[in-house]
Write a structure and sequence with these properties.
Largest sheet: 2 strands, antiparallel
Structural class: mainly alpha
Strand order of the largest sheet: 1-2
Helix content: over 70%
Strand content: under 5%
Radius of gyration: 43 Å
Order of helices and strands: HHHEEHHHHHH
Number of helices: 9
Length: 292
Amino acid sequence: MTDHKLSLTQVLADDAYRTKNFFAAGVLIFVLLSWLGVMDYAATEYVDDAIVQSTVAFASARAVNAAVSILQSAELSPPVIGGLTMGVGEVLDPINDLVEQYSTLMKMAIGSLVIQKVLLQVVSDTFFKALITLSGGLLLAAIYLRQTLYLNVLARIFISLVFLRFLLAVVVFLSGAINQSFVDQYAEQDLRQLDQVVNDMDSMQSNNTSNISDEAREGLTQDLADSQDRVSGIERRISDLQEQLPDLQRELSETDEQLAAVRSERGFGERLNPFSENELLDQANEARDQAL
């Protein structure tokens, strides 16, 4: 069975196929596009704008998170509930969790965009462009000089470099075009809503103290004064106990000595008789227990 498939070497080496000039024109076009970098500029501009937008969204999310954390420590006593205390943190916990997840997502997006920007800078560097130009020149030389031994290798090297050179730029460019057409308007709307939430949180934080009624303020002040009085009483009792501690330790030591003396004076029969009673021993044990 005859194989009708022709390799690249056979196609370019055979004069019957008028493809050398066409192939050479393609190589020159890719080399020229690599130096012009039109798509690189558009992709880099999109990445820069996306980094700025993601950073602003991340900063706004962290601001909301900080405001929520402060408000979570506050307590409200709405009159309609009859003075019952309601923890604001219980209400704001779901919002705080959602904001934390959003800030984590923005952090990951910023990291991904930074990596894309670095890769764009690498493939658009002058060294990479010169490498593509050199590989393209060697490929053209192999085509027209009929160096079939190196033709396939040089063609694969050139195609691989062109693939790396334009793939990332094309992907980022298409992603930016899709986002501008379908996503940006929703992202800007969400960002404005997030800024409004930040402003609302700041207003709640600044007005948190002024919104407390005079009666509630007096009640809080009285509770604070009572708590301080109880703390002062406990501190005084602790101070008295600390002053009495040396005397108690001395009495305990004396009681232990008396107990040891009584035990040593007991006879052998009394020691073996568990029912024998010794009034002095009982008094010593009682005194020791009181000292403890």
